[in-house]
Amino acid sequence: MRPRSHIAETSSATGAFEGRECCCRGRSWLNSWKQMITMPSAECQAGSRIRGYTPPPMQDRRKTRKVAIGDDRVGRLFIGGDSPILVQTMTAGYTYDIDACVAEIERYRLAGADVVRVAVPERKDTDALREIIKQVKVPIVADVHFHFQRALEAVEAGVHKIRLNPGNISDRDQVNQVIDACKERKIPIRIGVNEGSIIERKDKQKRMEELGKYFAGHKSGHLLALMIAKLEEYVDIFEARNFHDVVISAKSMDPALVIDVYTEIAARFDYPLHLGVTHAGPKSTGAIRSVAALSTLIANGIGDTLRISYASDHVDEVKDGLEILYCLGKRPRKGIELIACPTCGRIQVDLFTLVKEVEEKLSTQITLPIKVAVMGCIVNG
User: Within 10 Å of residue 170's Cβ, how many Cβ atoms?
Assistant: First the structure.
C-alpha cells in the first residue's frame, strides 16, 4: 500500500492503472474510465476494426485486506481479499419495531442479500437490536450517525458490524471508544464518508490545499479533496490504535464523482471498499446511475461489497446488485434469467404482455441457472 502522505503519481484523470503498450511500435495507451485510446500511428499493423483503438480488458480484482463479518449462528462471511463481492441493502422501516424489522430483513435475505444494514438513531432502536439479531439469518450492520453511544450500544447488543460517518462523528475520543469496543469483540467498522455530510476543517487547511491542487482538473475536485482528506483523518485514528478490521466507502449522488473518488482511494488504501451511489433516486434513474458507476469500478477491479440505493422497494436493490455481478461474471448466476427481444415490425405476438406473464409465473425459488427466452419472431429465436 502506498503511503497516504504521498500523492499518487497517476490520478483517475489519467488512469489509476498502469499504461500499456499496443502493437503500434511501442505507442502507449491510457487505460482508464475517461480515456482508453491507442495513440494512432501510420505504421500500425493492429488490424483493428476501429483504427487506433485497442479495447481494454477487464482488470483483475484489487488485492485488499480480508475482513470477517458474522458469527457461528448466521454464518461467517469475508469482505475483500479473494472473497466474492457481497451485496447489501438497508431496511426502510423502524428498527424498534422488532417484528416488522425481522420480517423485512428476511425478505431481503430471500432475495439474495448477503448483509443487511439497519438505522439506529435512538436508544430504543439499539434496545431492539439484541432480539432482532437473535431472529435473523444474515449479518446485521448498525448504521450510526451523530451519536457514538448508539455504536457502543449496538456492540453490546451483538451487532456484526458498525458503520460510522466521519462527517458527523468526528470527536477523536468518541471514535476511540467505539474502536476499542469493536476491537474487544472483533467487530469490523465501515468508515462511510458521504457527500452530504462533508464539511471543511480549518485545522486541515494545508492538506486540503495540497489535495485541491492535485484534483484541480476534476469536475468536482474540491469535493473529492474533502472526501479524501476526511478518510485520511479517520483512517489515521484507526491505525493509531492498531485497528485494521476496516471497510471504506465514499459515496456521492454523482456517478462520475463516485468513479473518481473510489479510483483514488483504491490507490491509497489496502482496505476493502464498499461501493454505492447514494440517494440515487427512483429505480428508473437510480438503476442507470448505479450501473454507470459500479460496473465501471468493478470492471476495473475495484469493489468488495456494494449497495444499490433506490427510493422504492429495497428488494429491487438486492436483485439489481446481484444482476450487476452476474453480468460481469463476478458471481455465478443463481435462478432464472429472462431475456426477450425489444420487438420490431416482424412481431407476431403480444410480446410485452407475454413477457410480463412469464416473469410473474416463473418461480423465484428456482436456484438452477436457467435461461428463458421470449421472442417475437424467428430472427433471434
Answer: 16
The Cα–Cα gap between 292 and 290 comes to 5
Calpha distance 63→82 (Å, rounded) = 8
Closest CA to 270 of 69, 45, 63, 97: 63
Neighbours of 295 (CB within 10 A): 15
Find the radius of gyration of the CA atoms of the chain.
23
**Three-state secondary structure of 276-301:** CECCCCCHHHHHHHHHHHHHHHHHCC
Taking 50 as the threshold, does the pLDDT of residue 22 lie above it? no
Distance CA 309, CA 131 (A): 27
| pLDDT band (50, 70, 90) for residue 44 | very low
Cell digits of residue 118: 439497519
At CA 80, angle to CA 56 and CA 175, rounded to 5?
125
CA distance 153 to 142: 10
pLDDT at 208 over 90: no
How far, CA to CA in Å, does 131 sit from each of 71, 72, 166, 186?
15, 17, 28, 20
pTM, two decimal places:
0.82
Out of 44-58, 135-149, 188-202, least confident range: 44-58
d(CA 177, CA 188): 14
| Residue 364 pLDDT exceeds 90 | no
pLDDT bin (cut points 50, 70, 90) of residue 380 is confident
Report yes or no: 161 and 141 within 8 Å, Cβ to Cβ: yes
Number of Cβ within 10 Å of residue 156's Cβ equals: 13
Which is nearest to 246 in space by CA: 198, 337, 196, 175? 175
Residue 112, SS3 per DSSP: coil
Q: Tell the residue number behind the cell numbers 484541480, with chain if given.
A: 216
**H helix or E strand, kind and range, residue 66:** strand 66-71
Mean pLDDT of the chain: 85
Q: What percent of the chain shows pLDDT beyond 90?
A: 66
Domains along the chain?
A: 18-58 (no CATH), 66-327 (3.20.20.20), 336-374 (no CATH)
